[in-house]
Design goal:
By secondary structure, the protein is an alpha+beta fold. It contains four helices and three strands.
């Protein structure tokens, strides 16, 4: 990460509006908020957060699908036609 992506809690308190504008305009993706020179939080735009949440959900579903493929028993499955008759 670049040095400008780090922001002290004190600087954030003093420059909240400017910091939020930088996130909104896309000047940076995120800020690591430091307290006593130690990382304590991440501040990111709502768009970046929602994209991250969506990607994590996609990865969770992909992992679930892969796990199910390893335990899938074709003999226990039903055809698309049977599925449509049962649920349509």
């Amino acid at each position: 990460m670049r040095a400008k992506d780090y922001l002290s809690a004190t600087a954030l308190a003093k420059k909240t509006s400017v910091t939020l504008e930088a996130l909104e305009k896309g000047d940076t993706d995120r800020f690591v908020i430091l307290k006593n020179n130690a990382p304590k939080a991440i501040l990111m735009s709502i768009d970046a957060y929602e994209a991250m949440e969506e990607e994590m959900e996609d990865l969770r579903l992909a992992a679930l699908a892969l796990a199910r493929l390893h335990t899938f028993e074709p003999a226990e499955g039903i055809s698309h036609e049977e599925m449509m008759n049962k649920f349509a």
